[in-house]
Amino acid sequence: MPKAYWVAHVDVDDPEIYAQYRAANAVAFEKYGARFIVRGGPQTQCEGHSRARTVVIEFPDLTTATACFDSPEYQAAKAIRDPISFADMVIVEGYEG
């Protein structure tokens, strides 16, 4: 079964509140076996449009990745982030080819 990933591009208006979101999302990520692959490090925009932060989070599979996003734990964390950020995010199944 292929792994799955959250791929998010985020602009943050208030880093202090965003730190609260990071602390809160740890509960859901631990529960669902998430592992950060990319967490807002330096990036080079090569084509198209993006946002200031890129985050890639690995999950055991697509069902688990979706369940984490929909979970009360993550939605509570997201409620902290929503007023101070703009995000584009997809949940995508990995390729095992």
Helix and strand layout, with pairings?
Layout: E1 4-12, H1 15-31, E2 35-39, E3 53-59, H2 62-70, H3 72-81, E4 85-93
Antiparallel strand pairs: 1-3, 1-4, 2-3
Outline the structure in words.
- The protein is of the alpha+beta class and 97 residues long.
- 37% of the residues lie in helices and 31% in strands.
- It contains three helices and four strands.
- It has helices spanning 15-31, 62-70, 72-81; strands at residues 4-12, 35-39, 53-59, 85-93.
- A four-stranded antiparallel sheet has the order 2-3-1-4, with helices on one face.
- Helix 1 (15-31) runs antiparallel to helix 3.
- The chain is globular and about 40 Å long.
- The relative contact order is 0.35.
- The mean pLDDT is 97.
Which whole number gives the mean pLDDT?
A: 97
Low-confidence stretches: none
Radius of gyration: 13 Å
* Alpha plus pi helix count: 3
Strand order of the largest sheet: 2-3-1-4
| Class computed from helices, strands and strand pairing | alpha+beta
Number of strands: 4
Biggest sheet record: 4 strands, antiparallel
- Strand proportion, as a percent range, falls in 25-35%
Distance between the termini: 11 Å
Query: Which descriptor suits the 3D outline?
Result: globular
What are the secondary-structure elements, in order, as H or E?
A: EHEEHHE
**Helix content estimate:** 25-40%
What is this entry, summarized?
The chain contains three helices and four strands; from the N terminus they run βαββααβ. The protein has 97 residues and is of the alpha+beta class. The model has no long low-confidence stretch (mean pLDDT 97).
